[in-house]
From TrEMBL:
Annotated GO biological process: positive regulation of telomerase RNA localization to Cajal body; rRNA pseudouridine synthesis; snRNA pseudouridine synthesis
Keyword NADP belongs to the record: no
UniProt xrefs under InterPro entries: H/ACA_rnp_Nop10 (IPR007264), H/ACA_rnp_Nop10_sf (IPR036756)
Keywords, in A-Z order: Ribonucleoprotein, Ribosome biogenesis, rRNA processing
Identification of the protein by name: H/ACA ribonucleoprotein complex subunit NOP10
């Protein structure tokens, strides 16, 4: 069992649970993704972000 969360309607609070589905909605993992310093796919992710202009620096305010 892993800790899961369900965001509230206002988006600023979360309800934590151990269930995968709560109130008919799929919950999300409350744990961060694993980090590996030896990331084999970072070059490809950056290329896709650059191609589709989703880099944080490229976003217009």
């Amino acid at each position: 069992m892993h800790l899961m969360f369900l965001p509230e309607a206002n988006g600023s609070t979360r309800r934590y649970t151990l269930k995968k589905v709560m109130d008919g909605q799929v919950t999300k993992s409350a744990h961060p993704a694993r980090f590996s310093p030896d990331d084999k796919w970072s070059r490809h992710r950056l290329a896709v972000r650059k191609r589709f202009a989703v880099l944080l620096l490229a976003q217009k305010k």
